[in-house]
Amino acid sequence: MIIARLTVAAVLALLVVGCVPAGNAPADPVSPSPVSNMNSQSASAEPTRTGTQPSRSATRSPEPTPSLPVTFAITSPLLEGGAATVVQKLHEISGLRPALKLDVTADEVTLIVLDREKQARGYRWREGIIESAVTDVEYLGQTIFWPTDFALDNVELIFDNAALLGTSSSGQNLQVVEYRPGQVLMSVTTTPESATIFFQPDGSVFRSLNTTSVADIREGIAAVTRSTSRVYSLGFNARLGYWAELPVGEDMTERRSRMGNRPTYVSRRSGTSPLEPFNPDLIDAVTLAQTIASHNSGQGCDVEIDNRFERVQPVITYLCDSETFHSDLEGRDLTAQLG
């Protein structure tokens, strides 16, 4: 009797399940929720500050297409805090996609992002309206970035500083884009074209470095030797700023230059140097500044450090007021020994 009742109950249960309409079927547990779907969008092209490029995910859901245009009013003027709010909103509308380019002018903001198919998509805010923007930007492996990582709380101050440093004060455009492989920077350009002024992500300007103070010598050397432990040579002077040459791969030489108020510039050429590489961490900015001060009245010297003399450690060569002399890394004079 008990067995019969259980059998009837099981049959009834199967009938009930079989009668559930298709439209009311339980959700597929594998399909991502809106939150997990947003996370998967970000993970498919995760930008980093070291220049890592986006990777393709094994499976993809359709790219979200926002309904545009939409109204988006701001409470602060665009150049006095409103730009940061607009960029945040554009980034959200894009699906929190990594960015390829950002432009801010006195009256509009344009954000170009990278979608899942590695295509550029544009979004623009102007006069309280957000809409799609046509773009000619193409993804060619350049470094991607998060647009909200850059200080846009006071774009007016950035424009003012750019004007003081050499740009025109009209037609200014703040742009965030890859400057060189692995490095994304802010810059201010103008229309018509004038000097380009570069800024750090926190809004501070790349300042000109002198060649006499300990702090500036240390900063200049660090700018051209960052992330390397082997250089063929490095040096600095008032005309060319700071520079270093280093081996790259098996048959390539890289030259890094930090001149004036511009970021470090990198170029490469085939071939290697006959000089023996050394670790730039051996260089002491205090020793350099003290030696320069003892041979020069604040005007600076031409300084070059390398292993041309084939000693155990590199030698520092100074040219101060037409006089050439040499020292070791501790500042001891080697001029008489080396001639």
How is this structure best described in words?
The protein has 339 residues and is an alpha+beta fold. Helix content is 22%, strand content 26%. The protein is built from seven helices and 15 strands. The chain has helices at 2-18, 34-43, 82-93, 155-164, 214-225, 285-295, 335-338, and strands at residues 70-71, 99-104, 108-114, 120-126, 129-133, 172-180, 183-190, 197-199, 233-237, 241-247, 252-258, 265-270, 302-306, 315-320, 323-327. The strands form two sheets. Strands 1-5-4-3-2-6-7-8 form an eight-stranded antiparallel β-sheet, covered by helices on one side. A seven-stranded antiparallel β-sheet has the order 12-11-10-9-13-14-15, with helices on one face. β6 (172-180) and β7 form a beta hairpin. α5 packs across α6 (285-295). The longest helix is centred in the first third of the chain and has 17 residues, at 2-18. The protein is elongated, with a radius of gyration of 29 Å. Residues 1-46 and 48-62 have low confidence and may be disordered.
Low-confidence stretches: 1-46, 48-62
Structural class: alpha+beta
Mean pLDDT: 83
Number of helical elements: 7
Largest sheet: 8 strands, antiparallel
H-E string: HHEHEEEEHEEEHEEEEHEEEH
Shape: elongated
Beta-strand content estimate: 25-35%
Note the gap between the termini: 114 Å
Range of helix content: 10-25%
**Order of strands across the biggest sheet?**
1-5-4-3-2-6-7-8
